[in-house]
Amino acid sequence: MKVLHKDSLPLGGFAGLKEHRLVVDNRVGGGGDTWDGIGNFVYLADAYFDPYGETRMHPHRELDVISVMLDGSINHEGSLEHGSSIHAGQVQVQRAGGEGFKHNEINPDASKNRMVQLWVLPENHREAAGYKLYDVEQNKLTKIYGGSKEQSATFDSHTVLEVGRFSKEESITKSGDFLAYITEGEAIVNDTKVKDGDLIRGTNLHFKTISDNAQIILITQNPKNNTR
């Protein structure tokens, strides 16, 4: 098992957004200190907006963009669900597809906020653009991405993303290879103590919280014959 902490990496960003990039896969120009992803997952940045900061309007195409809101809020502008907002405990998922989309995310407050942004490459090109919003449930993993084409609760993919917020002494297990990012609190992962800002790569996850409100973003893969 390997662990990478965000504070070991430089702080970058653009416009009104500052971020630590932990996953920048070689398929999207990564290298150096950042890690490659797993499956079609290629990017993870732990970010905050300056007070009243914004990304400014910019486009995406053939990319699925996932925003996990941790603290504060963002107001969303763009070609998908213009005028909506997301708050701590919610996840916004945008599928660009071949149609593409433009968006601008804005911090409406006089204090910094915090979110994790993730990118996943779509398995099929020329998909229609789409938008989904999820509430993260307590003491369970909420699937926010991945699954078969026969369902519509999440965008289809063999790469699966789940987000969970757990009370103290809660535990989860998951077989197979995984990437996990801790976004609040402390936990034991496969006999190693981890904390907020730790990215973990391993096999056969055993996760147990040792503080209240420990949060995890979990990325795994489903075998292709189980998701089609």
Number of domains: 1
**Oligomer status:** single chain
What is the CATH T-level topology?
Jelly Rolls
* Helix segment tally: 1
Low-pLDDT ranges: none
Summarize the main sheet: 8 strands, antiparallel
Instruction: Please compute the radius of gyration using only Cα atoms.
Output: 17 Å
CATH superfamily: Jelly Rolls
CATH architecture: Sandwich
Question: How are the secondary structure elements laid out?
Answer:
Layout lengths: L1 E4 L5 E4 L2 E8 L16 E9 L8 E3 L3 E8 L1 E6 L6 E3 L2 E6 L5 E6 L7 E7 L9 E6 L5 E7 L9 E10 L4 E14 L1 E4 L2 E4 L2 E12 L4 E8 L2 H4 L1
Summarize the structure.
This protein is mostly beta strands and 228 residues long. The protein contains one helix and 19 strands.
Features:
228 residues; Jelly Rolls; 7-stranded antiparallel sheet; globular
How would you characterize this protein structure?
This protein is mainly β. It has one domain (2-227): Jelly Rolls (Sandwich). The protein is 2% helix and 57% strand. The chain is built from 1 helix and 19 strands. Strands 1, 13, 14, 15, 16, 17, 18 and 19 form an 8-stranded antiparallel β-sheet that branches. It has a 7-stranded antiparallel β-sheet with strand order 2-3-4-11-6-9-12, with no helix packed on it. The protein has a 4-stranded antiparallel β-sheet with strand order 5-10-7-8, with no helix packed on it. The protein is globular. The model has no long low-confidence stretch (mean pLDDT 93).
